[in-house]
Amino acid sequence: MPTLNQLIRHGREEKRRTDRTRASDQCPQKQGVRPRVPTRKPKKPNSAPRKIAKVRLSNRHDIFAHIPGEGHNSQEHSIVLIRGGRVKDSPGVKSHCIRGVKDLLGIPDRRKGRSKYGAEKPKSR
């Protein structure tokens, strides 16, 4: 506990907040290369393995990004685009891969929420 005189001389130091978006450099999207493509188990009540990509961004940061949707064609050393958005049941995963851009294909035959998964509009007969 500091004395009053010490507080007058030095004051109190403000607590520094950690920046959650260090890797993105305040950019909405960032490009990166994927060194490996693991799966990871989620936190307690859930159990389906999550498809996760370790991505080395263009600014040399290494992050984990979630690959949304069913199935993906992504392999090692493919180029992906990253957006923000954390995955609640996967600790340390704070971004998503954008489907349908660069080497990561969109989901074919998807009807609902197509813009999030890079799916093209189905041809009407």
From TrEMBL:
Keywords: Ribonucleoprotein, Ribosomal protein
Domain of life from the UniProt record: Eukaryota
Keyword hit for Ribonucleoprotein: yes
MF term (GO), any: structural constituent of ribosome
Record's compositionally biased regions (Basic and acidic residues): 10-23
SUPFAM superfamilies assigned to the protein according to its UniProt record, in alphabetical order: Nucleic acid-binding proteins
GO cellular component, one term: small ribosomal subunit
Family that this chain belongs to: Belongs to the universal ribosomal protein uS12 family.
Region of interest (Disordered), ranges: 1-50
Protein name stated in the entry: Small ribosomal subunit protein uS12m
GO BP field: translation
PANTHER family: 30S RIBOSOMAL PROTEIN S12 FAMILY MEMBER
